[in-house]
Specification:
Blueprint lengths: L19 H19 L9 E5 L7 H11 L3 E5 L2 E8 L2 E8 H4 L1 E14 L7 E13 L36
Parallel strand pairs: 1-4
Antiparallel strand pairs: 2-3, 3-4, 5-6
Length: 173
């Protein structure tokens, strides 16, 4: 089979204009799909995930604009990241922001925890240290006029779009 993909074109929707970078990315995605179609003996791909980390300005406004364009999406947080993801069957498209760029960190107290300290020596010791108790206020992304409520969404993913929406899912129509 040939790896020639010159027949793959990029046709934007009527009235839309793609940047050269978008046009190139779409051509690359179509080339990937054509390659998989041309090589049926490859193992079956259980899923396809496209993760976009370079989202331009990491602002609430940019996040809201991307969310509006996605339409229906799930949101989640993991560590220091805030993610919005749209599912397309087993495929997903995620836009990933630094959480402290789009959410407000609130320190609501402290707690004493054990922490293992590693000095220059090989041995370690356990010390009691104060650790911040943090909550995050993240944008709801539903409507601009809706007040934001403080919450700290679960750290796990909400799963495929076919699962019922949870309380932290934002569904735009």
């Amino acid at each position: 089979m040939s790896d020639d993909i010159s027949h793959i074109g990029v046709a934007p929707l009527r009235g839309t204009f793609l940047s050269p970078a978008q046009t190139a990315w779409i051509a690359d995605a179509r080339a990937l799909i054509a390659f998989v179609e041309q090589h049926p003996r490859l193992p079956t791909l259980p899923a396809l995930s496209i993760n976009c980390y370079d989202v331009g300005a990491e602002t609430k406004e940019n996040l809201a604009d991307i969310a509006k364009q996605l339409g229906t999406f799930n949101k989640s947080t993991t560590g220091f990241l805030f993610t919005i993801k749209r599912m397309f069957g087993a495929a997903s498209l995620s836009f990933i922001f630094l959480r402290d760029s789009v959410c407000v960190k609130r320190i609501v107290g402290t707690k004493t925890v054990e922490k293992e300290i590693y000095p220059a020596a090989v041995t370690s010791s356990i010390e009691m240290v104060e650790e911040e108790i943090v909550e995050w206020d993240c944008p709801s992304l539903l409507r601009e006029d809706e007040p934001e409520e403080p919450h700290d969404p679960p750290t796990e993913d909400f799963g495929p779009a076919s699962s019922p929406p949870g309380p932290d899912d934002d569904i735009l129509f």
